[in-house]
Design a protein that fits this description.
About 40% of the residues are buried. The protein has one domain. Helix 1 packs antiparallel against helix 2. By secondary structure, it is mainly alpha-helical. The chain starts with 11 loop residues before the first helix and ends in a 5-residue tail after the last helix. The protein is built from six helices and no strands.
């Protein structure tokens, strides 16, 4: 593999990583909390805290993993490396910001709607965004855009529904109100 220069460009992998992670994790969290309680304030607080903590965490992980990959490729006998690992700070910023944006997608309906309606709107809007990003990924790289969009949407929604199931389970055992 040859070194390629994409100076100043956002790494699409970082964008997908942060955006999808933020969206799916916060969707699962807010659905779980919403399933366990009908208190909108608790849902919003947990979603906002998760958004901030996750974006910082994901940015830090992107930085350390990009730096580690860069060091690894630099140590290979032929000195091959990928340009995407050249700037760990750019990777950290892209993943961190994408995580915030992704996290806000499922959270926004809870600011404006009651819990039950917000759950439905959050699921629908998140599913549409996941489909769109998956389709865009295929259009910018290889693969069938419909299949890629559907795959990303199904994987993300299933993962998020696990969080909802945990919230319902906790509520049924009287662990939360």
């Amino acid at each position: 593999m040859q070194k390629t220069s994409h100076a100043g460009k956002v790494n699409f992998r970082d964008f997908i990583l942060g955006g999808q992670d933020g969206l799916v994790n916060v969707l699962g969290l807010v659905l779980g909390v919403a399933g366990a309680t009908l208190n909108t304030n608790i849902v919003l607080i947990s979603g906002i805290v998760a958004t901030v903590a996750e974006s910082v965490s994901m940015g830090a992980v992107a930085y350390t993993s990009s730096k580690a990959a860069k060091d690894y490729y630099a140590s290979i006998k032929h000195k091959l490396h990928f340009a995407e690992f050249e700037n760990p700070f750019r990777s950290a910023a892209t993943v961190g910001i994408s995580t915030v944006v992704g996290s806000l997608i499922p959270l926004i309906p809870f600011f404006f709607l009651n819990i039950k309606n917000a759950i439905v709107v959050s699921l629908i809007f998140s599913a549409l965004v996941l489909f769109f990003v998956g389709a865009l990924k295929a259009r910018l790289s290889i693969g069938n855009w419909k299949r890629s969009g559907f795959e990303m949407m199904v994987i993300g929604i299933i993962a998020a529904l696990v969080g909802y199931g945990v919230g319902i389970l906790l509520k049924s055992y009287g662990i939360v109100v």
